[in-house]
Amino acid sequence: MTDAELQRIRSIIETHIAETRSSLPYLAEESKAVEPNVSLGRLTRMEAISDKSVNEEIQRQAKARLEKLLAALDRLDKGVYGVCLRCSKEIPLGRLEIVPEAFVCVECASRPR
Ligand SMILES: [Zn+2]
């Protein structure tokens, strides 16, 4: 990978990190405990609980993605970015542009462990 390509990937990763981070405080607020509230009807409260678990799942995925993105940035800093962690082949740039947090190539990702 050339320096220009690495630079481009770095900015893609940083954009994704910023986007994921900015979505987390909002989700944290939304997934606070649903307090019993006399002003809420029974159905509304059930809907609120259902929304809560959906939000928690979204938040969990966002956190997992953030960790992967940070790990990708770390590999970029260490100069080992873009190499498949399983077969050591270079991961095609096109894949990295779409999935910058990818740490295995498509072949390894689709192959059962
Ligand atoms: Zn591989």
- Helical content band: 55-70%
Distance between the termini: 27 Å
Tally the helices: what do you get? 4
- Give the SSE order as H and E letters: HHHH
Estimated radius of gyration? 19 Å
What structural class is derived from the secondary structure elements? mainly alpha
Q: What fraction strand?
A: under 5%
- Which word captures the global form? elongated
Low-confidence spans: pLDDT under 50, at least 5 residues? Answer: none
User: Mean pLDDT, nearest integer?
Assistant: 86
Main beta-sheet strand count, sense and barrel state: none
Number of strands: 0
Small ligands present: zinc ion
Strand-helix topology:
Layout: H1 3-30, H2 42-78, H3 93-98, H4 106-110
The chain binds zinc ion (ZN).
Description:
- This protein is mostly helical.
- The protein has a domain at 3-80.
- Helices cover 67% and strands 0% of the residues.
- The protein contains four helices and no strands.
- The chain has helices at residues 3-30, 42-78, 93-98, 106-110.
- The two termini are 27 Å apart.
- The model has no long low-confidence stretch (mean pLDDT 86).
- Zinc ion binds next to helix 4.
